[in-house]
């Protein structure tokens, strides 16, 4: 958390050569440790194959969406407004899930989250690739771009893991 705050507040940290690599390694190590703790809890309660299935589904989804972003000629920055609308409706739907505690609604909530994060992954990948009309990430911001993609992919993995855990608990 502190590493991310330092990166966001001090833009020179992720643009200067020795500092950017240090912050990238620190953030990756901290986030990987957090993710390992999350996956170990899921592996303990639901079994290791559930975590492997979530990793395989995440890999399949990320590869497909990345190839789509690379070979598509469309500019996806217009979708950013739609993602904001989806986020606010997603938050309202989350409050409904908290109130009702219905497993089917939470399952739908996880599926919507994976869909929104997939759209964000395409937008972020297209921003890093650049293009004629798109808002891009400059060459000096490669650490910031890699962090964006890393966080997007790990969030997709966590939501797929939640969805598979819900499906496994129904059996």
Report on this structure.
The protein has 171 residues and is mainly α. It has one domain. 81% of the residues lie in helices and 0% in strands. It contains 6 helices and no strands. Helix 2 packs across helix 3, helix 3 packs across helix 5 and helix 5 packs antiparallel against helix 6. It is globular and about 50 Å long.
Write the layout of secondary structure elements.
Blueprint: H1 2-9, H2 17-46, H3 48-71, H4 79-100, H5 103-129, H6 142-169
Task: Describe the structure using short key phrases.
171 residues; mainly alpha; 81% helix; 0% strand; globular
C-alpha end-to-end distance: 37 Å
Are there runs of 5+ residues with pLDDT below 50, and where? none
In total, how many beta strands?
0
Which structural class should the secondary elements be placed in?
mainly alpha
Estimate the strand proportion: under 5%
Radius of gyration: 18 Å
Tally of DSSP helical segments: 6
Shape: globular
Number of domains: 1
**Biggest sheet layout:** none
Amount of helix:
over 70%
What is the H/E order?
A: HHHHHH
If you average the pLDDT, what whole number results? 83
